[in-house]
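BUG: 3D viewer hangs when loading the predicted structure for this chain

Environment: internal workstation, default settings.
Expected: structure renders.
Actual: progress bar stalls at 90%.

Input used:
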Amino acid sequence: MIEIENLAVQKGGSTILSDVSLRFGQGGITALIGPNGAGKSTLLNAIAGLTTPTTGTVEVEGLNMARARAPERAQRVALLAQNEHVTARLTVRDLVGFGRWSHHHGRPREEDHRKIAEAITAFDLEELAERRLDALSGGQRQRAFVAMAWAQETPWMLLDEPLSALDPRHVRDIMDRLHALTRPGKGQRSVVIVLHDLGVAARYADRIVAIKDGRLITSGARELTMTGGMLSDLFGTRLAIEKVAGRDVVVPV
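C-alpha cells produced before the viewer hung:
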C-alpha cells in the first residue's frame, strides 16, 4: 500500500507539489501522467524518500519514507531515475548486480547470484549478460537498467520515464515484460511509472494518477479515469479515446 496524505513540496521558494493525497494497493502498473513540469518526477522521488515533503506524509507499506533510513527504504522501493549514469565498461551482469547491493553490501551470496540470473532471464538478457553497456543498443541498455531495478526484489518499482528515446519496438518489449511481471502470481511486483506517451498509458496502465501544476487532478482505475475530457483538460488540447483493434488509443481531435 502507498499512502500519501496532504503532500506538499517546495523548492527555492517555488511550490512543486501541493495538497496531494493518494492511496493505492499493490499489484499492476500505475502511470503518472501530466504536462511537463507538472511535478511527476518530484512525486516519484517523494515516494522513494529522496525528496523531503514540506508538509504531509508518504508511507510505503506502513513505512514513513521521509523518516526512514536508506536501508529501510531499499527494502520497500527500487527507483530507476532519469538519465542513470554508470561506466560504459560495466557488463550487463555487473549492472544488474547493482540491484542486489542493498541485500549483500558488497558480499554477494549464492542467493544474490540466483536473483541476478532470474532478473537477466526475466528481461531476456542472457545472450547479452557478458557484453559491455557501450556495446548495446539504447533499447537493450534500458532493458538492463529495468532488470537492475527488478533484481532489487522490492514490492514496488518506481520508474521515471524509462521509455524516453526508445523506438516503438523497444517500448513494447519493455512494457510487455513489465505488464506480465505485475500480474497476480508468485513474485508479482508493483510498478509506478512516469509516462509521457499516452498511448502506452492507455494500453498498459491499470491505474492512472494525473497531475497538473503540482496538484492531483484525478486518480483511479484507467478505465474510469482516462477519458478524452480529462486528458483534454490535463494537457490543454483536445484529445479523445478511440478503439483500434480492440485497444484504447489516444488521438487528437
